[in-house]
């Protein structure tokens, strides 16, 4: 089976790595890919937001399935364009992609479905935002950009001036809306369901670590690491999540004709009063994918094919009984202004216990490796328990060398103390 993967992040490298290991792999393509995918796939230079080009490359590569990694081309309608040409795609159409592309849209669907969520308000003006702040003096609120923000369009604050500055930038500069929510206390989980347009399959639960600093402090990032599976996410908790969040969401999506073949990502906060939905995403998470796919013990090509051919029901998907810990290695300054194109002086080799996934890296004509973004690599350790996996991940991360490289050393610690 020939597969085309769209994107150049560590998530896409992990997807390419899994597809390269498929017994059914007869041709693997990445558009544009990165320096890590060069050895396992044919990289196609180009922009994933150039929809006509993506369609033309899907045709030329003769890909049976196009797997869309990032959210932007999904929101632009790349799946619609591919399907118009008879090409099977793993991802939602433009209308369903609004579940992620518009937090307002996602909140409305959750409300109609009766899904437990934080109390939220849709604000179109800065005045509306500040009116809510004034009604909740000295109370921490969660202020979100409604549209896509690469995981960084969220402010948690009880500072009116800080909230006003954030709202003014989003509303006046970016011409977007704001969702103001109550601040929920608890711990976050990432739950992925593979959809086939009618049925779904739930994958092992992951936990992302959004804060830049250890002990979950500092500004939000696109994700500083992830662990999978989570011991506290036992069958009882998963049953509650499925009954109160996943199934009602799927039922409402069917009512609103929003079902698709791809991933539905549930960001969940487990509170003292039970799990509550934080947000929907419509693609694999980054960095969760890097910790999830190494545990997959069935052929990913079979899983992707089951999704796009409406055959998930009864599909047997196995995962190895191990733990995976992924640590994001970031550029200096991230998640603020950061340096790009930093020469990478040392890069460790992968092994069965430690995997290294590239994010946006490039190679020049002389074979020199350079960083390309704020999050540069994900070091993934595998082990029979968390402590072994974490040790392998830390050891691998310590061997990645470029100027200013940094990472959190406490990924997953909260769940195993």
Task: Provide a quick synopsis of the model.
The chain is built from 13 helices and 24 strands. The protein is α+β, with helices and mostly antiparallel strands and 417 residues long.
In round numbers, the mean pLDDT is 95
Strand elements, count: 24
Q: Structural class per helix/strand content?
A: alpha+beta
- Describe the main β-sheet briefly: 5 strands, parallel
The radius of gyration computed from the alpha-carbon positions, rounded to a whole number of angstroms, is 20 Å
Gross morphology? globular
The helix content, as a percent range, equals 25-40%
Count of helical stretches: 13
Widest β-sheet, arrangement of strands: 3-2-1-4-5
Percentage beta strand = 25-35%
Q: First CA to last CA: what distance?
A: 44 Å
* Unreliable sequence segments: none
What does this structure look like?
The chain is an alpha+beta fold and 417 residues long. Helix content is 30%, strand content 28%. The chain has helices spanning 10-20, 51-61, 71-76, 78-84, 98-101, 103-113, 126-135, 160-173, 235-255, 288-292, 300-308, 386-398, 413-416; strands at residues 2-7, 27-32, 42-43, 65-68, 88-90, 120-123, 141-145, 154-157, 178-182, 187-196, 200-202, 207-208, 211-213, 217-220, 225-228, 261-271, 274-281, 323-330, 344-346, 354-358, 362-363, 369-370, 375-383, 401-402. The strands form seven sheets. It has a five-stranded parallel beta sheet, with helices on both faces. A five-stranded antiparallel beta sheet has the order 12-15-18-23-20. Strands 6-9-7-8 form a four-stranded antiparallel beta sheet, sandwiched between helices. Strand 16 and strand 17 form a beta hairpin. Helix 6 packs across helix 9 and helix 7 (126-135) packs antiparallel against helix 8 (160-173). It is globular. The model has no long low-confidence stretch (mean pLDDT 95).
């Amino acid at each position: 089976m020939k597969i085309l993967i769209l994107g150049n992040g560590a998530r896409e490298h992990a997807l390419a790595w899994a597809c390269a290991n498929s017994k059914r792999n007869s041709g693997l393509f990445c558009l544009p890919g990165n320096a890590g995918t060069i050895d396992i796939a044919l990289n196609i230079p180009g922009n994933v937001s150039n929809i006509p080009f993506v369609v033309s490359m899907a045709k030329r590569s003769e890909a049976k399935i196009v797997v869309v990694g990032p959210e932007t081309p999904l929101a632009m309608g790349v799946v619609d364009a591919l399907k118009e040409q008879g090409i099977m795609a793993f991802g939602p159409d433009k209308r369903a992609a609004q579940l992620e592309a518009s937090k307002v849209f996602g909140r409305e669907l959750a409300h109609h479905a009766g899904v437990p969520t934080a109390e939220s308000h849709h604000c179109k003006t800065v005045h509306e935002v500040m009116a809510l702040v004034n009604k909740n003096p000295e109370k921490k609120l969660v202020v979100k950009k409604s549209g896509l923000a690469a995981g960084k369009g969220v402010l948690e604050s009880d500072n009116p001036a800080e909230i006003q500055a954030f709202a003014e930038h989003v509303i006046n500069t970016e011409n977007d809306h704001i969702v103001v929510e109550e601040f929920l206390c608890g711990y976050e989980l990432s739950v992925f369901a593979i959809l086939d347009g009618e049925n779904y399959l739930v994958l092992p639960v992951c936990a992302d670590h959004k804060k830049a600093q250890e002990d979950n402090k500092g500004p939000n990032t696109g994700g500083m690491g992830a662990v999978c599976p989570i011991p506290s996410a036992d069958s009882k908790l998963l049953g509650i999540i499925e009954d109160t969040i996943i199934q009602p969401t799927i039922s409402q999506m069917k009512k609103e004709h929003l079902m698709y073949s791809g991933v539905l990502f549930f960001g969940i906060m487990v509170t003292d009063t039970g799990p509550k939905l934080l947000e929907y995403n419509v693609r694999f998470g980054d960095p969760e994918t890097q910790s999830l796919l190494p545990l997959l013990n069935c052929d990913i090509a079979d899983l992707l094919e089951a999704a796009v051919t409406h055959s998930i029901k009864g599909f047997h998907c196995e995962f190895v009984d191990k733990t995976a810990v992924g640590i994001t290695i970031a550029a200096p300054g991230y998640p603020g202004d950061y340096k790009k194109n930093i020469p990478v002086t040392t890069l460790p080799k992968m092994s069965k216990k430690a995997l290294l996934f590239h994010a946006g890296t490039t190679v020049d004509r002389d074979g020199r490796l350079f960083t390309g973004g704020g999050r540069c690599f994900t070091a993934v350790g595998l082990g029979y328990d968390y402590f072994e996996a974490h040790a392998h991940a830390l050891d691998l991360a310590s061997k990645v060398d470029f100027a200013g490289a940094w990472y959190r050393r406490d990924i997953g610690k909260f769940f195993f103390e």
